Automatic annotation (TrEMBL):
The keyword Zinc-finger does not apply. Catalyzes the conversion of 3-deoxy-D-arabino-heptulosonate 7-phosphate (DAHP) to dehydroquinate (DHQ). NAD(+) binds at residues 73-78, 107-111, 131-132, 144, 153. Pathway: Metabolic intermediate biosynthesis; chorismate biosynthesis; chorismate from D-erythrose 4-phosphate and phosphoenolpyruvate: step 2/7. Residues 183-329 form the 3-dehydroquinate synthase C-terminal domain. Zn(2+) binds at E186, H251, H268. It comes from Euhalothece natronophila Z-M001. This is 3-dehydroquinate synthase.
Length: 367
């Protein structure tokens, strides 16, 4: 069962391949790419313990020279200090402009490895092998790379498209249930902003809170449709000049919640789920979509075991203040992605602080 999706760009188009056992069969993909002989695999301890050895063997079998760098995992480690360690490894191994970094891990590893590739020697190759659902359907695709600043998420970064994205669904078997649910937030996002068909498939599924309850066909379908949605949007707007901004649905308030809780209390997917619930309420208040559609979204969020309630210890005023430093602010106005119906969304900077405050309060008080 192999799905292949092309991200069509003016330059540097690339393939997303989705199939079991792809990690063990990476050699044929590497040999088909115009890359040099030297490769560094970047990962974290847990992921590398599970999949690093087989990946290294597959790369060596294809006659590439490979080394690896293990970094600490977690959003709080997504810093320039961690990227410096990749630079050190690149220097030690005499990487050239034709050389390649391979990110084996979730979104944090993918973002840092991509940023290191974008900036080392002014740009070398990167291949993404995402190991979390969130990274598979979102972070690994589209070329957004970066690290966090103490005052905000992803404020330091660059666009740098991968040469290839390899997705092996079997690695999700070792993913903790909480991380699987976090990835489902991004899947729901695609359903709301892009594909009503995907949304309806999720609605009709019996359970979505654990991988064990998904058939292999449904999982393949979720991965393929989500990746296709991301590829469609990125192909039309590579560097977020317009349409691509809709991919930030739920992320505006979500990022503020992550930042204010020190990236420890809620993970990225949980924050996005809460952010989608807030954005859904804003959209209802502004007449963009109906109360019924907002409730359908919230029911789907709950079905995946994700939160939709703003943490009670957060002050609404602090959330509003944090929004001002969001990277989507333009001319001093916060831009929100708001759904117009299931399967379509738009971007607006006409949301008043009062409406945001009302929606946040409603989400904080709801159970």
């Amino acid at each position: 069962m192999l799905s292949e999706i092309t991200v069509n760009l003016e330059t540097n188009s690339y393939q997303i391949a989705i199939a079991p056992q792809l990690i063990n069969n990476i050699g044929s993909y590497l040999q088909s790419l115009p890359i040099g002989n030297k490769i560094i695999v970047v990962s974290n301890t847990m992921i590398f313990d599970h999949y690093g050895e087989s990946l290294i063997k597959a790369i060596e079998k294809a006659n590439f020279s490979v080394s690896y760098k293990i970094l600490p995992d977690g959003e709080r480690h997504k810093t320039l200090l961690s990227v410096q360690k990749i630079y050190d490894q690149a220097l030690e191994n005499y990487l050239e402009r034709s050389s390649t970094l391979i990110a084996l891990g979730g979104g944090v590893i993918g973002d840092m490895t991509g940023f290191a590739a974008a900036t080392w020697l002014r740009g070398i190759n990167v291949i993404q092998i995402p190991t979390s659902l969130l990274a598979m359907v979102d972070a690994a695709i589209g070329g957004k790379t970066g690290v966090n600043h103490p005052q905000g998420k992803n404020l330091i970064g660059a666009f740098h498209q991968p040469k290839l994205v390899l997705i092996d669904p079997e690695v999700l078997k070792t993913l903790p249930h909480r991380e699987f649910r976090a990835g489902m937030a991004e899947v729901i996002k695609y359903g709301v902003i892009w594909s009503d068909d995907l949304f309806q498939q999720l609605e009709s599924a019996q359970r979505l809170d654990q991988l064990d309850y998904l058939s292999s066909d449904l999982l393949q379908n979720i991965l393929t449709q989500s990746c296709q949605a991301k590829a469609d949007v990125v192909s039309q707007d590579e560097k977020e000049g317009g349409l691509r901004a809709i991919l930030n649905y739920g992320h505006t308030v979500g990022h503020a919640i992550e930042s204010l809780t020190g990236y420890r209390l809620v993970n990225h997917g949980e924050a996005v789920a809460i952010g989608m619930s807030v954005a859904g309420k804003i959209a209802v208040k502004m007449g963009y979509w109906s109360e019924q559609e907002s409730q359908r979204q919230d029911q789907l969020i709950l079905k995946t075991g994700l939160p939709k309630t703003v943490p009670p210890m957060l002050k609404v005023e602090d959330i509003l203040e944090t929004l001002k430093s969001d990277k989507k602010v333009k001319n001093g106005k916060v831009r929100f992605v708001l759904p117009q119906k299931i399967g379509a969304a738009t971007v607006t900077d006409e949301v008043s602080p009062e409406i945001v405050k009302e929606a946040v309060k409603e989400c904080q008080e709801s159970t």
